[in-house]
User: Fold these one by one.
Assistant:
Number 1:
Amino acid sequence: MLTPLPAEDWDDQVREALASTVPPERRRPDKAGNALSTLVRHPALAGAFLPFNTYLQKGSTLPERIRELVILRTAFHHGCVYEWGHHSAMALQVGLTEADVEAAQSGVTADESDQAVLDAVDELHAGSRISAPTWERLGQRLDDRQRMDLMFTFGGYSTLAFALNTFDVPLEDGAGTDEFYASMGS
């Protein structure tokens, strides 16, 4: 539905929208990737959303491993190929195993703590809340701030999935490989 903003239309507004969260080497149409290049069609919205998304990705109190489990389960629920493609690779880079990635898809794992995380995402998706028993199970591993970050990670990545799916943002060729991320400068 929406294509990435053509290179000739990148202007100072677009670069300013990316400035607070995207490294200088990625503020170019050939390095930003399809998601960012599509989001900057609305520079004011991109400039507001990207700092929040960056917090979820880099500043959150969630351990990386749990963050990626949440994102993967969220991407699965929304059928977001773009999120799944990027984050299944990122999950492996932060220590998840192939079995963990498969568990994020199936929703079932032998690890009780991970199961609480997957159940929390399932409950948020199905009923827009985490039940008291699941909140307590999460509390065996996560403090209140981490549980709050879990909920906002689900919400932020759900919003992003809605956008990526609606705009039909294609997964880049080679996404999910080390070579791809090296070429993107990350």
Number 2:
Amino acid sequence: MPDKLDLDFVRAQFPAFSEPTLQGQAFFENAGGSYTCGPVIDRLERYYRQRKVQPYAPYEASRLAGEEMDEARSRLAAMLGVKTHELSFGPSTTQNTYVLAQAFREWLGEGNAIIVTDQDHEANSGPWRRLADAGIEVREWRIDRETGLLRLEDLEDLLDDNVRLVCFPHCSNIVGAVNPVAEITAAAHASGAFVCVDGVSYAPHGFPNVGEMRPDIYLFSAYKTYGPHQGIMVIREELGRLLPNQAHWFNADTLYKRFTPAGPDHAQVAASAGMADYYDALAGHHGIGGDAAARTSGVHDLFRAHESELLQPVLDFLSDRNSVRLIGPRMAPEKAPTVAMELPGPGEDAAAKLAGHGIMAGGGDFYGSRPLQAMGVDLKKGVLRLSFVHYTTKAEVDQLLTALDDVI
């Protein structure tokens, strides 16, 4: 396996990098949504041009439309190390989480408890917290106020025989710390609880092997992983069969339909196979072999190595600034390249100034008001957030650091 990611090859797969209107601008708001890779765009366009019909009928256009939807599900499931029918699509991760929470609302009984964190994006916190209205006890696994980190020993203090579900992020969109999913999952399972992991802020940095980590639910958003605007949800069969069906009665026996009450966006589901095309192209170009999960793991490691190399200078630069409160870990291997910082003034003001230097970034609370409040950040001021992924170059990071030197 090569030591380095071939950035020229990577960037050639993204039309955005040859788009005239984007030239000279460095994109550092990837946590809000990534650029879309060419294979996804090609599949989406082909579907709309050739196959925009009701799928799964016997005529040719319909048959091909259904086959492309099935291909997306089977290939992505293989990449994530799970069974094909354990993966489903929905309009967004927020919607998928909401539907799941309604299933748990019906399934849980008096005396049951769930655990949520205050490190989460609101989409993986709010729907679960509302179960308190149905008499379910909601316990909060709280972050350290200084570091923003979750401690496993604090979770273990909350676990007992009443806890049926533990919800936490693989990576916070504010703190950026990578949580040890396998270790946390093992602790929850040992106590008899199921596990729901919000992978929205981690999956852009390489698809994980969900099968090996063993959470019962894993959710992420395709529009942040170089794909269309779809929420992707893995729900393992044991749990999926226990929870009440949330879809049409005639879909109750099909696991990947049980928690998607609305009909799927056929074109976007089909286009999601383009993400698998992209990973396969990267694996082939870099000489990474094996089955789908092994190829995905190899690409994941290339992504993380490249991102960490670029991230450390950014963390070092910000750590040296007295006017900056850097949130989360200071060492790149412990963190995704999502960097939030508290400044003397509003984060949005700093983002506006960076735009004048060709830096695309954002300021605010990013639906992460709970971790920010827990760490004492004024929500009216918010934070400046810088986020990048594997297609970011050293030249763009240098451009960012030069701009930051002027702005902060």
